[in-house]
Amino acid sequence: MRSAVRAAPPALPVSVRTPVLVAAGLGLVVLVVLAVLFAGESQPTAFDTPLLPGPDLLPDPWWYLATAVDFVGEPAGSAIVIVLITGGALLARRPRTAVLTLVGCGLTVAVTSLLKPITGRTIHGHFLSYPSGHTAFATALALIGAFVLADRLHRAAAITLTLTLALICGALMAWAEVGLGAHYPTDTIGGFAAALAIIPATAFAIDRVAVRL
């Protein structure tokens, strides 16, 4: 088992290692700075206001699409996705990716959940909103999937794919959360930054541990 883990494809491909670790550092800075700026706030910023939906939120059929996207970040939906990705990684003989899915997503959910009461930013009166856990989770999944695909690409293509996939998936979940009235747009930026900070660092740590086994 140890030799299999050591010889397995990396959780964090060499082709994207340096840029995503730099991005992870920037993500951590953004996450902390926004948390300080929004601590105890209960109103949208000047950046948020023009991006918020009207009082009736999203019209049909966009409401149903947003609800479907939102389900991926709900406990039941996230559990299903994690089981599927972990199982697929094990079948593909990528144990490090399986560990990254479990540990990375777990840490992402834990960090965003803990930051909400610490930051104390609220929406609609009393709902804790910063950072967006749903956006963080979607971005985390996108990064994990991108790392698998990037393992087969040249450096430039791998970096482009990783950033593009993370941005698209993060933006899609952000749109759903803002459209459903669950978050301010800046909450979703914090969620994106959280995943960007956590997933590459976790993948790097998993690879280092696997090599030392």
What does this molecule look like?
The protein is mainly alpha-helical and 213 residues long. Helices cover 72% and strands 2% of the residues. It has 8 helices and 2 strands. The chain has helices at 2-7, 14-38, 62-71, 75-91, 95-119, 133-150, 155-179, 185-212, and strands spanning 122-123, 127-128. A two-stranded antiparallel ribbon has the order 1-2. Strand 1 and strand 2 (127-128) form a beta hairpin. Helix 3 crosses helix 7 (155-179), helix 4 packs antiparallel against helix 5 (95-119) and helix 7 packs across helix 8 (185-212).
Rg from Cα = 17 Å
Number of strands: 2
- Overall, the morphology is globular
Order of helices and strands: HHHHHEEHHH
Helix-strand category:
mainly alpha
Biggest β-sheet description: 2 strands, antiparallel
Oligomer: single chain
Estimated helix fraction: over 70%
Share in β-strands: under 5%
Summarize the structure.
With 213 residues, the chain is an all-alpha fold.
Output the keywords.
mainly alpha; single chain; two-stranded antiparallel sheet; 213 residues
Any chance you could write out the topology, listing elements then pairs?
Blueprint: H1 2-7, H2 14-38, H3 62-71, H4 75-91, H5 95-119, E1 122-123, E2 127-128, H6 133-150, H7 155-179, H8 185-212
Antiparallel strand pairs: 1-2
Helix pairs in contact: 2-7, 2-8, 3-7, 4-5, 5-6, 5-8, 6-7, 6-8, 7-8
